[in-house]
Design a protein that fits this description.
Structural class: alpha/beta
Number of strands: 5
Oligomer: single chain
Strand content: 15-25%
CATH topology: TIM Barrel
CATH architecture: Alpha-Beta Barrel
Radius of gyration: 15 Å
Distance between the termini: 13 Å
CATH superfamily: Aldolase class I
Strand order of the largest sheet: 1-2-3-4-5
Number of helices: 5
Order of helices and strands: HEHEHEHEEH
Largest sheet: 5 strands, parallel
């Protein structure tokens, strides 16, 4: 089921609350919150404190997309801050089943994200225990990138 999930990374951070309300009015299904650690991807973004502030200002579910190394160390903090959905990268997770189980035990929906160059067969086992899949259509780490057209073929 396709969902409309605008990324908070694209927002003007000085008026995030106002922009969250605008996407609510526009029909968004959830707020996508990109988390980057400067290790798994070269950029850094805000952490769970900003997610908590966004969550206080919206009734929409918040999806924390963890583009980080060792996601297990951050998952509890993001769920405690209000993340309703948490996705981790297949490429950054040593024990994916354990990581997805942790997310579910904490009460959030557990998702697996996959980079554009990762073959889809690598997802086969994860599909048995993930609640959702985030199929990346850009390489993770930077906003404003050009859409990778082949991503549409991968959806089929």
């Amino acid at each position: 089921m396709p969902l409309l999930a605008p990324s908070i990374l694209a927002a003007d951070w000085w008026c995030v609350g106002e922009q969250v309300r605008a996407v609510e009015r526009g029909g968004a299904d959830l707020i996508h919150f990109d988390v980057m650690d400067g290790r798994f991807v070269p950029n850094l973004t805000a952490g769970y404190e900003l997610l908590a502030a966004v969550k206080r200002r919206t009734s929409l579910p918040v999806d924390a997309h963890l583009m980080v190394e060792e996601p297990d160390r951050l998952i509890p903090k993001f769920v405690e801050a209000g993340a309703d959905w948490v996705s981790v990268h297949l490429e950054a997770t040593v024990h994916l089943h354990r990581t997805l189980t942790l997310i579910k035990e904490l009460g959030a929906k557990a998702g697996v994200a996959v980079n554009p160059a990762t073959p889809l067969w690598a997802l086969e086992e994860a599909l048995h225990y993930a609640d959702f899949v985030l199929l990346m259509s850009v390489n993770p780490g930077f906003s404003g990138q050009r859409f990778i057209e082949r991503s549409l073929e991968r959806l089929r």
